[in-house]
Each structure stands twice: as C-alpha cells, then as structure tokens.
Amino acid sequence: MDAEAFFERGQALAGEHWEVLTLLLGAVIVLGAVRDWSWLCDPAGTRQAYSTMGRGGRRVVLGALGALLMGVSLWQMAC
Fold first, then answer.
1. Whether pTM exceeds 0.70
2. Helix, strand, or coil here: 17?
C-alpha cells in the first residue's frame, strides 16, 4: 500500500468514526490535565504565559474541556 492510499483510507476511517477519535482526544486532554503534563499545561512561549489564571487554572479548564469533548463524543455514539 503506497502512502497516498494509506492516507486516503485513514481519512475515510476518520470520517466514519469521528466520535472515537474525539473521545480519545478528550481522554488524552483529561489525562494530561490530571497528570500535569508540561507540554499540555505550560504555555511557555505564548502571550498568555503570565496570565492571572496560572497553571492550576489552565489545568482545570483543560480538564473540563476534555471532559466536555468526551461527553459529546459519547452522546453522539449513543444517538
């Protein structure tokens, strides 16, 4: 299988099962917020690196957004 066919198959699979992909993405975001992964929770090099929210606040927001993403994915799977 050449690379073009591989990517076309991947796009077709992602289009058919986008709920699973968003569920996995939400799970990674929640896990990263809980485990305090630096690549996710530390916005070094961005303008908001010194925001008033702080790292803990960013972790809470990311965890909530990841949970929301997982919830929407599960809801779409059930419907």
1. yes
2. coil
